Amino acid sequence: MRGILIGGALAFLLSFFLTPAFIKFLARRGYGQQIRDDGPKTHHVKRGTPTMGGAVLIFAALAGYFASHLATNVPITTSALLVIGLIIGLGAVGFLDDWLKVVKQRSLGLRAREKLLGQAIVAGAFGYLATRFPDEIGNTPLSLYLSTVRDTTIKLGLVLVIVWAIILVLGTSNGVNLTDGLDGLATGAAIMSFLAFVLIGVWKFGQRCEIVVTNCYNARDPLDMAVLAASLAGACAGFLWWNASPARIFMGDTGSLALGGALAGLAMTLRTELLLIPIGGLFVIITLSVIIQTTYFKLSGGKRVFKMAPLQHHFELMGWGEVTIVIRFWIIAGLSVAAGLGLFYAQWVVA
């Protein structure tokens, strides 16, 4: 339990104090955000704001996690290393996208297919490796069974598990990426989601089948996943200080793809895959708004459901202030996380 506090606190401090130094580094080199010309006109003032802040966010989270293990002398688990590999891999794809935007001075970096392919390769590798490395009682980081709050009786098998891992990672990482359109919006929502996984990891550790006979949980390394989730939440909190409106730095695809991958990795290793839908409810809603807009636009011959997608830009064009949208969307994120935790604990109570 000390590891959770140490990891979260150190990640927060590193993110809080390193981010302004990183802002100066990026500003000196002119590594600023490019803004879409077809986006809300109010965003044009953000042109040139330092981007790729996700790099310092990832560093702070991982440094906090590893330092907590040094401080507590607790072994690092395979599950955490695999999720860390997923975070770094997706962060690298996002960094390449951000770098191309900066170098080519345009709002688009990698082509959509290239980005999706990179994400799929990283996710597929995670899905395959996570079905290996059983512990002494046979639990692997990723189960071959579909999970809600714990494993169900629906067996997917190796191939479908890998495909499922790719779908979860692509959906979640791109969901966070789409949400990262207003100052602090994705960062604040991610903090709430990571804290939910801290609670789930701690609870599953206390109710694991090695020590509880009935109504127990099988997960390979639940407590260590809670430590990693706390480190990610702490790093996001420190970064949010500088990312809140008016943002002095953006996380870019480097951060958004990595954070989304982290959420998917935590959900899979904690055997709560479908619970990711309510816990990441805001990301789901915003992703659905893009799917609805795109589908209706094609089927109707150019008509739109929203003034603009993703959803937060629709409300901008309706005249809502940016801070108002962010706070109200945070409320939605908080309610979604509360619903997810409610479903988790309700299942344990009634089981």
Question: Could you characterize the architecture of this molecule?
Answer:
This protein is mostly helical. It has one domain (2-278). It is built from twelve helices and two strands. The protein has helices at residues 2-29, 54-72, 78-104, 112-129, 157-179, 185-206, 222-243, 252-269, 276-279, 281-299, 311-317, 322-350, and strands at residues 145-147, 151-155. The protein has a two-stranded antiparallel ribbon with strand order 1-2. A hairpin with a 3-residue loop joins strand 1 and strand 2. Helix 1 runs parallel beside helix 7 (222-243). The model has no long low-confidence stretch (mean pLDDT 91).
Mind sketching the topology for me?
Layout lengths: L1 H28 L24 H19 L5 H27 L7 H18 L15 E3 L3 E5 L1 H23 L5 H22 L15 H22 L8 H18 L6 H4 L1 H19 L11 H7 L4 H29 L1
Antiparallel strand pairs: 1-2
Helix pairs in contact: 1-2, 1-7, 2-3, 2-7, 2-8, 3-4, 3-8, 4-5, 5-8, 5-10, 6-7, 6-8, 6-12, 7-8
